[in-house]
Amino acid sequence: MSSVAPETIDGLLAAGAPKLSVYLIGAGGCGMSGLGHLLLDAGHSVCGSDLVWNEELRQLSARGAEIHVGHRAEQVSRARPGLVVYSPAIRVDNPELKQAREMGVPIVRRAVLLAAMLNRQRGICVGGMHGKTTTSALLAFALSRLNGKLSYAVGGLVPQLQPHARLSPEAESWFVAETDESDGTLVEFRPEYSIVLNVDEEHLDYYENVDVVCRHFEQFGQQTKREVIFCADDLRLAEIYAWHPRAISYGLHSLANYRLVHLQAGAAGTQFEVYTAGKSLGTFSLRLRGEKNASNACAVIAFLHRLGFEPERIKAALEEFSGAARRQELIFADQRFRVYDDYGHHPTEIEATLAALKSLQPRRLLVVFQPHRFTRTQHLLGRFARCFKKADHLWLTEVYAASEPEIPGINGTRVAEAIRDQGQAVEFVPSLPELGPALRKAMLPGDVLLFLGAGDITVFAHEFCAQLGNELMQPKEQLYAQLASRLSRDSTLKQDEPLARRTTLRVGGRADFYVEPASEADLAEVLRFATEHKLPTMLLGRGSNLLIKDGGIRGIVICLGHANFSRFEIRGNTLVCGAGLKLKTVSVEARRNGLAGLEFLEGIPGSVGGALRMNAGAMGSWMFEVVESVRFMDSAGQAHERKASEVYVEYRGCPLFKDHIALGAVLKGTPADSETIAQRMNSYSHKRWESQPAAPSAGCIFKNPKTIPAGKLIDELGLKGTRVGAAVVSDVHGNFIVNEGGASAKDILDLIDVIKRKAKESRGIDLETEVQIIGE
Q1: What is the sign, positive or negative, of the torsion defined by CA atoms of 605, 609, 610, 612?
Q2: What number is the average pLDDT over the span 402-412?
Q3: What is the C-alpha to C-alpha distance for residues 196 and 303, in angstroms, rounded to an integer?
Q4: Using one digit for the tens of pLDDT, what is the confidence trace for 143-162?
Q5: How confident is the model at residue 757 (pLDDT cuts 50, 70, 90)?
Q6: Which end of the chain is more exposed for a tag (fewer CB within 10 A), N or C?
């Protein structure tokens, strides 16, 4: 929808150019409201709209911005802006956006304008799927205390950064920005430095697959003028940036340039030590808790140290940062509802928590709040009245005293009145026992229910969830609830889960139950549960070499996708690999550690477990040629280990794993020069990309007959380009069927039959499928 070229934006922002009137569509979002603050700081006038009034809009309005509630075309007509900016949440048919187009007003995406403003100063971009807000806020907070001259744009409300975006008037100022990758605008930024925290299988509604996401981050790194600071513990980032000429790594990894060690968590927060170039920078303290926060802080430390700040000054700046409390805990989930318990009891915390849960896109967000302490309620009454705007239904209980004496006139009834004065409906339920029936009557399938407060509301929340779990459900729902109760909270369990997006071919029906165990103990529970209830199980790896029929899979589909099954360790000349580890990652880590012999794994789009099951091969090598030992689990949940020499294997198969689940393997390498290994991997990669299609596929469809390779046969039969629906025989390689978008499993199966009939009729050859075909 953007109609403005980057050079046009540069001209509008240039020194001496006339000040603009800018209209923000979706002004209440954290990113858009932050952009509003930057524009106001630059002297431009700001107007805009959003669907509901919130604190972000209030802050803009207090600074002179003209804000409207609701999107209406006449608001743009009256404003007559020189530029219109829209957020990623705005639809093409938005009436204000349509009016701007009709008026011929320049239109630009939020990130494009933010990038243009950042690119005019000394940009520092913080990117990644998780932790961007905390990291960018921590960096902005620390840098403001170390340097003073600073611009920043943080994508969340942070109490110590008010407002959450600021523009310094000095051209040489640092500009810290949280950069969003969800809509493809990451590559608009050309910062001086960038910090990249992680890459995950996210935003696949926008990106074709995670490899495209990785290429997006790779381009982002190439556009960074100086150093890219990346997390060495993230295996995808290691693949992207390990060979970047200006990359600096951080994290727990033994090869990280800035290595985090001696991590200790306590009641007051987290302590850790950072080493670089073999020397300690000292021990750092954070008020934030957890390994991820410590890792993200290590990124900030690495950057500040690269700028030349003394470690003692960095320590002092970091330990003052308090962050934003967001502690949502999922305490109940089934196919009907999700219930969360949260300690939040301050308006800022409440707004942040409601915003986070709204991002789950529930049918409705139902909220129960117990005010905490009379003094807090009295001092913050006005803010409590306005902080629940994102709640679709709100219940309020009596104030939890926390040993404070009662203040006359300050109680739950008074808070409810203040909320109603703001035009929001609220139900006041003074007694917790009365609350249960009211909640249950209101709840509908698809709702998310949130309990908020620092008092005894949490006890009631857990009791209420126990009642939900005891409710009568259908047999399938009962199985789901029973299995969920036997798994740890870190495991993932879903019912009627679509499997198409979990295969490289992008086709397939639904699984009755889909589970990603968080540990071997949880995996054992799943297997025992399946045995007890006579449920079939199927193991799903990375989804390559697999065709799932449109009817889906009955029983339980197990995927070892949790990070605990993707662990990696070097022991001498061997690599200890979890079953969920990507084969490409194995080859990259072997190269990084100077071990040869595993280069052929670079091009196989699967996991260690899948490669063991299939005895996968490429470039003339096979998986079990490099296996020293395997670890696996039987149907009773018992784990075993066996030497590779004791395991029978065959062409494209290992019978052991037909009824056992691979947990991992020890792979053997040969010491060699990393450059030599890299050259061999590059040649394999080049050969693969020249000979294999890029579109979604399952790999080779047919086994090679004895007399002729399957791909050559199909080519000679003139079948390249043959299609059934959106399933097409690849023009690049005849033994590949690609999904051009929207193909069904039936399309692919029908196309397989066409190829098999032609081969039989024309050459007398019976083609045998190599791809696994499963499901109903």
Answers
A1: positive
A2: 86
A3: 11
A4: 988 887 899 999 876 778 88
A5: very high
A6: C
- Beta strands 727-729 and 737-739 are antiparallel
Residue 562: CB atoms within 10 A of its CB come to: 19
Q: How confident is the model at residue 55 (pLDDT cuts 50, 70, 90)?
A: confident
**Residue pair 371/345 in contact by the 8 Å Cβ criterion:** yes
What pLDDT score was predicted for residue 19? 85
The stretch 454-463 carries a mean pLDDT of 85
List domains and CATH numbers for the chain.
Answer: 6-112 (3.40.50.720), 121-318 (3.40.1190.10), 329-469 (3.90.190.20), 475-559 (3.30.43.10), 566-689 (3.30.465.10), 693-774 (3.90.78.10)
- Residues 598 and 669 sit within 8 Å (Cβ to Cβ): yes
Tens-digit pLDDT profile for residues 89-120: 788 888 999 999 999 888 988 888 898 889 88
pLDDT in tens, 465-483: 888 877 756 677 778 877 8
pTM for this predicted structure? 0.47
Q: DSSP letter string over 417-451?
A: HHHHHTT---EE--SHHHHHHHHHHH--TT-EEEE
Residue 524's SS3 state is helix
Q: Quick check: helix, strand or coil at residue 79?
A: helix
What per-residue confidence (pLDDT) applies to 259?
93
Phi-psi category of residue 615: left, alpha or beta, with phi > 0 → left and psi -120 to 50 → alpha: left
Sheet strands side by side (includes 727-729): 723-724, 727-729, 737-739
Report DSSP letters for 235-298, one per residue. Answer: HHHHHHHTT-TTEEEEESSTT-SEEEEEEEEETTEEEEEEEETTEEEEEEEESS-SHHHHHHHH
Q: How confident is the model at residue 472, as a pLDDT?
A: 56
**How does DSSP assign 369-401, residue by residue?**
E--B-HHHHHHTHHHHTTTTTT-SEEEE-PPB-
Query: Counting beta carbons within 10 angstroms of the beta carbon of residue 408, is it exposed (0 to 12), middle (13 to 18) or buried (19 or more)?
Result: exposed
Structure tokens at 96: 């204000």
Residue 482 phi/psi, 5-degree rounding, is: -65, -45
Query: Nearest to residue 171, comparing CAs of 114, 122, 113?
Result: 122
Strand blocks (E) in 619-748: 621-622, 627-633, 639-643, 661-668, 670-671, 723-724, 727-729, 737-739
Contacts of residue 308, defined as CB under 8 A and 6 or more positions apart, other chains included, come to none
- Nearest CA among 382, 335, 340, 343 for reference residue 365: 340
* Cα-to-chain-centroid distance, residue 58: 30
